[in-house]
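OP here, attaching both records as promised.
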Amino acid sequence: MINDSNNIFKLVVKILTKNNINYWVCHGTLLGIIRENELLSWDHDIDFAVWDDEYSKKDIIEIFSSEGRFKQEFVLE
């Protein structure tokens, strides 16, 4: 799982950088990087943040959807 997560992390960074999107790592992802020097093995997501006044959620979804490797999912609780 960690190798898959590392690959996804690197791919997201590449896409954000290619599109000149300012971002930062946050929440459990940041905790793992700071505390463990790696992604946490029990954390099942990767947390990135972007400035909402620079890119809308729709913009980000379109950028990642156009890559063909990501899809948007809706989870109803």
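Record two, same layout:
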Amino acid sequence: MALSNYEDVHIYPLDLEDRERLLREQIECTFMWGTRDHWPVGVFMTYIWKDGSFWVSATSQRKRITAIKRDPRVSIAVTSVGTSMGPARTATAKGRAIIHEDRATKDWFYPACAATNIPAPGKFQDAFAAMMESERRLVIEVVPEKWITFDGAKMMAASVESWRASGILD
């Protein structure tokens, strides 16, 4: 089938393996929630992809915590920009947020988050983890329920094939 336009790009999803690779390689996401007056809001956050969930952190006075308690439905968007996968690959998850305040979660999350932000083990990484330890710090788990993905490499391959078939590329 010849490609004539980019009207319908849902036909270029990320393969499951590529989605997993993206989520393991990237360290930053856009975390989105709805405000009390129904405005969508998003912030960039460092995340950890573990056991099929996104894990992020914030302190209890942040507006997103109030919003999550009111309505746990959130979204997380991740792009391949800055990874070895190159640009134009994305994964967006619609999911539900779970707020964790327990010691066991914080004990694994703080060092993992520090290692994500400061890859070289040592005193800076340890200091980062120690700074996360505060009275109001919470860990948020987002459990994906629906995925929206896009693989620009697939779209480009289909484009080149179409251009060759039409004689644009000789």
